[in-house]
Design the sequence.
């Protein structure tokens, strides 16, 4: 007669986490993320099962990948044959897989189920996968942030350039401006036949640092060749510049 000692081992629930929805570009490789939380140490008896349910179907999930004891085993779905590989690390509570060459027929729901005895009770987690063309991919938050930063930098550069041009224009408008040739001739004609006094302070033709201009003398030249003829006269201006 033997005596047997029976006991009840405590069972705790394991928690599994996956993204609710994933958009994948057709023809690319995707990593389906799955993490878990367990109160027990990871052992060689820990296992991960990934299953698939095609979009629009109401049948049960079908296993496409199984991992335990450091080894991976393909599932029973032909469309995923040689296309699913292990991408996780059980010691880091990572049970992710990698699916190569995603196709439109891969649209559907993927489930991740992790067991880590004695943590064996718990709910599997689901990810809705949508395979789309590149143009239909939604913009990620990272792309939005990068676009915003680039736009801000371009805006700052434009503002800096405009400000620089405005400042340069204002500085140029304060520079000394000499009078035009029309103003010079008009000023000279008002003093025909007369000795002009020094006009350095009042004339716009002289810069503040220019030498003082002496009296201006006007004369007439006869181009007719006759001493008594006064036809075809042209005014000629002679300027007597005084030395400083």
Sequence:
């Amino acid at each position: 007669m033997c005596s047997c000692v029976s006991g009840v081992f405590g069972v705790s629930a394991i928690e599994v986490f996956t993204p609710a929805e994933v958009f994948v570009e057709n023809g690319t490789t995707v990593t389906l993320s799955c993490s878990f939380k367990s109160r027990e140490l990871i052992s060689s008896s820990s296992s991960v099962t990934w299953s698939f349910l095609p979009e629009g179907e109401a049948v049960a999930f079908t296993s496409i990948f199984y991992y335990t004891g450091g080894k991976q085993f393909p599932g029973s779905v032909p469309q995923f044959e040689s296309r699913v590989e292990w991408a996780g690390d059980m010691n880091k509570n990572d049970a992710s897989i990698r699916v190569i060459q995603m196709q439109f027929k891969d649209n559907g729901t993927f489930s991740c189920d992790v067991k880590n005895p004695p943590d064996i009770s718990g709910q599997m987690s689901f990810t809705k996968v949508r395979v789309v063309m590149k143009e239909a991919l939604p913009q990620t938050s990272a792309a939005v942030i990068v676009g915003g930063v680039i736009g801000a930098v371009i805006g700052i550069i434009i503002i800096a350039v405009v400000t620089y041009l405005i400042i340069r224009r204002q500085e140029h408008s304060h520079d000394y401006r000499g009078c035009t040739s029309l103003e010079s001739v008009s000023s000279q004609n008002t003093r025909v036949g007369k000795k002009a006094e020094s006009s350095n302070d009042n004339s716009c033709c002289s810069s503040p640092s220019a030498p003082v201009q002496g009296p201006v003398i006007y004369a007439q030249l006869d181009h007719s060749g006759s001493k008594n003829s006064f036809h075809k006269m042209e005014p000629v201006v002679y300027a007597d510049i005084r030395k400083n």
Q: What stands out?
A: The longest strand covers residues 47-54. The chain has two helices and 13 strands.
